[in-house]
Amino acid sequence: MELRPFSALEIYNSDPPGYSNDKLWFRGGFPDSFLAVSDDESGQWRTDFISTYVERDIPLMGPQISSVRLKRFWTMLAHYHGQQVVTTDLARSLGVSHTTIKAYMEILTDFYMIRQIQPWSGNTKKRLVKTPKTYLRDTGLLHSLLNISEFEALLGHPIIGTGWEGFVIENIVTQLSNKWRYSYYRTNDQTEVDLVLESPRNELWAIEVKRYSAPAIRMGFYNAYEDMGATHKFVIYPGSDRYPLNDETEVMGLIEFLKLLEKESANH
Fold first, then answer.
1. Alpha-carbon dihedral sign for residues 228, 257, 112, 73
2. Are strands 243-244 and 249-253 parallel, antiparallel or unpaired?
3. Which residues form the DUF4143 domain (predicted)?
């Protein structure tokens, strides 16, 4: 049984009037980090957690890896957040084989620190990218590994787009029952959908994640959902209003979307 960190919907349900995704996104969902009295205390807890995890917790569970090397690898993965990991580049940087890098990734996946999202495997005439995308599951740990200690610094950091994307995707994926399947879609010409959900009723939901108050969607998204035959199209953004972007695509906030998923799961 997986005991996950706090989710956006859990925090919202406990304090809806003053709820904001920003605190959870910045600090992550580990209780001692999220509930800390200040960002400095939260950051110190996360730094200590990372050190303890690589120095004591993982070795206690069996894998015997240099804590210095594993922490360095984890930090390097933070820079690949939301991307396809090039194992040969990481192997060269760490002075190990690419098979060792894959073993490290499996360890962090098994220990719930990273999530590898597989590419969509449905029928299409387009050539698809076949490498999984990798996300650090807790964005608080992501920010600590990237040495982002203040929320204002996060807003000006290059990671902001993929960081928010990972936060949204993790909250969605952890909301799904085992009757759903999830993946991402990308062709060799970079036509992409951030998250693809396949429902128990064989519906195909195409989801784009944007960190803009007035999100605009690229033509590639529309081309992608036509290629896939998507039945539902959504854009998840930081706001709370829900409105149609056009006749086929709906814009909504994360909480609203999670409530929609909760309702769908209850009905099926």
1. positive
2. antiparallel
3. 55-211
Helix %, strand %, coil % of the chain (to 5) = 45, 15, 35
Helix 98-110 × helix 67-79 angle, to 10° = 90
- 47-59: b (≥16 Cβ within 10 Å) or e: eebbeebbeeebe
Mean pLDDT of 144-149: 97
Q: What is the pLDDT of residues 23-75, one digit of tens each?
A: 999 999 999 999 999 999 999 999 999 999 988 888 787 767 778 888 999 99
User: Mean pLDDT, to the nearest integer, of 100-129?
Assistant: 87
Q: Is 156 helix (H, G, I), strand (E, B) or coil?
A: coil
E strands of the chain, at which residues? 83-84, 114-117, 133-136, 181-186, 192-198, 204-209, 232-237, 243-244, 249-253
Q: Measured between alpha carbons, how far is 268 from 179 in angstroms, rounded to an integer?
A: 9
Of all residues in the chain, what percent carry a pLDDT higher than 90? 57
Task: Give how far Cα 232 sits from Cα of 61, 203, 240, Å.
Answer: 42, 8, 19
Alpha helix locations (H) across 95-190?
98-110, 139-145, 151-155, 160-175
pLDDT confidence bin for 174, thresholds 50/70/90: very high
User: Mean pLDDT across the chain, nearest whole number?
Assistant: 90
